[in-house]
Amino acid sequence: MIGRLFINGQNIELSEGLPVPFIFSVSDLKNPQDRKRSQSKSIPVPGTESNMAFFSSTYQLSLSAGDGTQTIGFRFDPTIRIAAQYYKNGKKVFDGLAQLLSVTIDDGNYTFNVALYSNFIQTMEALGQMKLAELGWSMYDHELSNTNIKNSWDTSVIVNGVATPNFTAGVPDGFGYLYALCDYGYENNLRDHKNNNLIPHLYRKEVMERCFAVAGQTIDCDFFETERFKRTVIGAGGGSKQTISPAEVATRRCEYTGSGDYTFPDVHPYANHYVNGAGFFTSYYQYYVNFNQQLMLANNYWSSVTILNDPLTQLELTTGKQTINRTGNYSMNVQGTFDMDLSFFGTGTFHSDFTYIAVLYKNGSFINSSSPFSFTGDDTKAIDVTFDLFCTSGDLLEVKFQFSTGGYFTSQEVPGSPNEPYFRLQVTTDGDFTIDLQSIQGSALDGDTIYISNYLPDITCAEIVKGIITEYNLYVGDPDKDGIVKIEPMEDYYFGTDVFDDWTHKVDKKKPVTIRPASNIEGKIYAFQFLRDDDYYNKIYRDEYGIGYGDYNYQVPSTFQQGTRVFQLPWAQTVPVEIPGTNIRLPTIINVDPITGVVSPYKGKTRVYYYQGLKTCDNWVLRNSAITTISETLTNYPACSHIDDYVAPTFDHNFGVPSIVYWTALAYTGVNIYSEYQDTSIREITGKDSKVWNGNVYLNEADVQIERFRVFAMINGVLFKKNIIGEFSGNGDGSTPAELVRIVKADKRRTILPLISSHTIKNPPLLDGGKDEFGSGPEAVLSDGGKNSVLLNAPVERG
What pTM does this model have? Predict the structure, then answer.
């Protein structure tokens, strides 16, 4: 039976007997951190009448989009990957994206060369260079106050101005923000912290959900619902706080109102015979409108613009484009109404509705969009959306309004007749809107608004997604028909060893089988690392032990291998340091002058913490930053670290056990992100008993369903993981190459307790609650000069 290919919902006609070979990949053994995805080889699609109509925009050289930028009226946009599915014998073999590679014209015959790719590519491409701050965090903007800071530790966060619970039974729900208590070198007295020296961090669970939402996808992940993951947060790595004056904030503002009218080109759907449930043609036709056809307002919509604020002349009146004059964090609010006039022509009934969104572009690339607003006909709809973004001087910003349609007409009119149904959409001058771009990096004191996006690290969303996949050795499935993506750690992705497919009799015995030691693949050292940073304690540790704090190197037990394979996260690790004479331990990111010992802020890379929760401690002060005589003495603090508990640890977000720690550690744990999520996979492919099986097997459509890749394969009583299935076509006349990895039970690593540092840095005389709003005066303290000392005999000053 011939396979069936659908692109953007359209049935693409294929040649009889055409093989459509797919390569299915769970994890490329040679590059496991890359997570190479499933894909097809080039598929030659014949130039039938139906296919020619569908791909018309790709070969008619004189045909162009109505406004020069959008494929209005086109059935296929060659500049993007579009949803595609391939069926064989009634079973879906592939669900992903299609990309047109080329069009070949030979003696008047057309061939469209198409390739299919995993949907995961769409996720990463949708993220592009989008920064974390641009995911839209304005809902969490709030007033800086003692109450809001403390509530973030165990109770609630502000959501759209309302205090909203985000803890259940003492465990974070994984959304909102957390004010982490860290030592950034801002305070003289580490037991006396001003409110504006605590920095809000975001929960990584929500960050991941928002990253996938950019691609229109929803995450299904049991691991992300665990306490272990929901307690992790991401934030900035310290440095001098960026502030600008209120006058500069006002200078950077660009606010204007606009209105106009625009009539889109008439949309003529394409027709197919209507087939009823019994499979028979009827007298009706279905005139299909491409799902998510994009109708974008052209620049001539901006017929009336009034500037309210624009001291730096950043707005171009005729186009509504803004050229950023000064680098910084910004917030853009788009608010107003649209008045739509929708007209239908011809005879027929339309089945569907319409939506529109506001879309923000920076330098011509998509940055963010609003949620869709629905309308069904003549309608007036309000819009109110805020975008957060980081801009550099010279960046070009543009807001467009995108209208999408999807559905079909049911009509008895023959295609091409005068009464063939079509529609026309017009946006009238009865609607107007206001766009307000404001700088959000002014200095904050108690009572001021905290703009969350202003405090976030400079890291892209793609880096975060790749980093979390690497950190926990995650398998990311392809979205299903509802856009739901299954994500789990690799070891949890596979079913138990008692569930397997017996492939013993599927092996093609006429073709060779190759079995080789997996340890011969590549690399003597598998290095698991955090991003290198050179703040004081990270540098001290690296200089002393020759490896980064929290890093781990696994050495392959083979004398033949050479080289190092590096698995690096896009954030640095932070060293927690105990305030001497107390039981308070703070993540510490500071500079220390090697001559004077003076402590100052250090501009570090992105950081990730495990939030232990509120821990009982010696007294410390949380102080109002606007009225410094107002303060509160506390006997618990929000403990953040790489370890889940300082007293009785059970899990460590390091790769390896540190050789030394800088707090009084009565116990430690060897259970960490390497031992839990990396160790088994690495030993499976590097151990002396590890084997890679390469051969050919006879497979059918049922064998390559997504769920079957989670099931082990058994050959002659030996269990294997299905790693790569190569060039499956399902024609039934040949076998398919397969690469399998033998399951090996690895031994657990033994736990080695770290040393405890006898450091003496940060040891001024402290009073309960602090001496005054500026903290106590500095006192020079010398190291004991022992092996575990970290100050190397230099005096220390805070400030």
Answer: 0.72
